[in-house]
Amino acid sequence: MLTVFGTIALDTTRTPGATVERILGGAATFAALSASYYVRTRIVGVVGNDFPPPYKKLLSKRLDTLGIMSRIDAKSFHYDSSFDFDLIHRTTNATELNAVLGFQPRIPDKYIDSEFIYLANNDPVQNMKILDLFSAPKLTICDTIDYWIVNKKQHVIDMMKKTDGVIINEQEARLLCNDNNLLRCGKILVSFGPEFVVIKKGENGAVLFHESEIYPIAGFPTEIIKDPTGAGDSFAGAFIGYLAKTRKRTARILKMAVMHGNIMGSFAIEDFGVNRLLKLNRKKILERYSKYSDMLRL
Fold it and tell me: Domain spans of the chain?
């Protein structure tokens, strides 16, 4: 039902409290695991000759991994970043494309009829190529990161024109739109053609732009913050996962999807890499959602 395409990575994350090297990460990984708590989820991506077999086994427990391809001639995508003391501001130390570079996307035959497609932050050219491989998706959503905006800006815009929704964080929105005002950025992004746009604001929640309306939604407050790396991708996975589950796109449903995105993002940051996402269950998610709803109710 839902197929997620993007990077499956080995991440190195440095925080004031700890440094972890080459742990399981990547945009598609976080998004797919998050989405899997809502609907059956397939993951498509490429890994290199250094990808640990135990990581593949972990993914296979929750996801359909038939779409993961391996390259024996390259190493896996590697992202190295450092967080400041506030665990908000992040510095990219290295983005090593490795197996992603020159990768020609393809999907298993049984994925062709996927109704819901999430294009995680990945090479926008590859994203557009793989989108053309599906027969008739009912909903497609894309994301991006500063690396692709800087290096392939027009391709990023072209990708957004082909999708129904865009999810992007506030720094990337400002960079892509060359504007420091998020409301103007949202309007610019909507002008590219998507039905809706979500601008993520980290601990401050997100802003939904839909049908000329703007809906700011506060984030879920949490005391445990160890690794914010996958928060945005976990948000996106839950967002499209909820939409795939409900099969509706009204303003109310989209706002609820944002809330579920904020919830899953709040879980993801409580441990390094995907560890927290692997230890969840529906009961914990619904309990946090209930508490969150009460917080937002006037």
Answer: 2-296
pTM for this predicted structure: 0.96
Assign a CATH topology to domain 2-296: UDP-N-acetylmuramoyl-L-alanine:D-glutamate ligase (3.40.1190)
Give pLDDT, residue 89. 84
| Phi–psi pair at 20, nearest 5 degrees | -120, 140
Q: What is the rounded CA–CA span in Å between residue 279 and residue 255?
A: 26
Q: Which residues contact 272 (CB under 8 A, 6 or more apart)?
A: 13, 18, 20, 23, 226, 227
Question: Is the separation of the CB atoms in 197 and 168 below 8 Å?
Answer: yes
Per-residue pLDDT tens for 85-105? 988 888 999 999 999 998 988
Whether residue 298 has pLDDT greater than 70: no
Phi/psi zone of residue 103: left (φ > 0), alpha (ψ -120 to 50 degrees), beta? beta
Say whether 85 sits in a helix, a strand or coil: coil
Residue with tokens 């269950």: 281
Residue type at 1 in one-letter notation: M
